[in-house]
Design goal:
The chain is an alpha+beta fold. It has helices at residues 6-16, 28-39, 43-48, 54-63, 72-78, 96-108, 118-125, 163-167, 170-183, and strands at 68-71, 88-93, 128-131, 134-141, 148-153, 156-160.
Length: 186
Amino acid sequence: MANPTWRAIVKLATVLGTTPRLRLVPDRNAVAATAEFLSELKPVERLREQPVNLVGALSWLTQYGVPFVVIGAVGGLLQGFPTPATDLSILVEDTDEALLALQEVLLAQQLLFEELEPSELRPIVARSWPLNECEVHVRLVAQLPAAVTVELVSELAVRVLPPQALLEDEEVASMLGVVQMRSSEP
């Protein structure tokens, strides 16, 4: 089956007891062009080129003093990697103060409708939230990892995993793996 239909792929996956996933992989020239384009942009401009309002979501989190570190594709993008971003993944420190700051953001965005105690917040905040037209994935961690600060605009700077740590991030590594795999092809 040289060019199977999606229906054939689903049937084969069902027989094998798996679920098929569709992943569009850009070609080497598209990745190279994207990397070159991004290298000429400031970090905030890279974010504004994405299909979601990443700057708005980051602004809300920063404005309310939520202690967080950006990970995933947005972290890669801020560090200059050619990673497309359709959502925002962050690590938030698992402290009462951080949870209450995050709660203020969620209340202001009308995603929560009443104030809760940190013990009540803890089990519900570690999920995805539609923040300012951007899906934000929150993961609570005991301690925030080492990070570098990236200034987006005056009075808006965010902490991001350093480049080496981002290379170990599954989302970034998969994109860069595609880039490396494609660049090694004849």
